[in-house]
Amino acid sequence: MDESVPLELAGPLACGITTGAGAVLNTANPGPGESVVVYGVGAVGLGAIMAARNSAAATIIAVDLHDSRLELAQRYGATHVINSQKEDSLERIREITGGAADYAIECAGVIAVLEEAIEAIGMLGTCLLIGGAPTDARFSADHMRTLFGKRIVGALGGSRTSQEMISALLARWKVGRFPFDELVRTYPMAEIEQAIRDTHSGEVIKAVLTLA
């Protein structure tokens, strides 16, 4: 890794942001004109949104419960945003895409959301599982609609080694194509409780504690 990159920025790339970005760039790799739906736009989902903006995808849809996070998603590349508390997200996705999405990236770790993500993709579409659901969680999918070529794929750690992914994302960051640093807020260790509160409230996406 480039030693000029501050550790407080490099640290957040160790897992979440990298996982979301790699799921799009490496596992999905959407082609020209294709559509991507990202469910849950915390750190993982926003990483996916930024990556989708760096891809050939024409339509990038963010789905979340919080308007503040949807505003961030739009800032970082979403062409459409859906607050699933205010409208039927599946119906809206079908309207936007003209039928179904090519890719759905499930970042929420909620089984009901995952099952909707599977429904959101069409024939030959791909649903990527990267949200952290409980270890004993199970999901179901419609057999006949899945039979028509739907793919359900797990993606862990960006589907590449950490060395490859972090270097690739930092290269994009340096030329302004992956502004993940805007998601990071640093706190001195003495303010750890405030960092936890801000994280739980959604005020901050990625809190980093500093020792100095």
Automatic annotation (TrEMBL):
Family of this protein: Belongs to the zinc-containing alcohol dehydrogenase family.
Cofactor: Zn(2+)
One GO term of the biological process aspect: formaldehyde catabolic process
Residues of the Alcohol dehydrogenase-like C-terminal domain: 43-168
Name of the molecule in the record: Benzyl alcohol dehydrogenase
A Pfam family the protein falls into: ADH_zinc_N
Keywords: Metal-binding, NAD, Zinc
Source taxon at top rank: Bacteria
Any GO MF annotation of the entry: zinc ion binding
Native source species: Kocuria marina
Any one Gene Ontology cellular component term annotated for this protein: cytosol
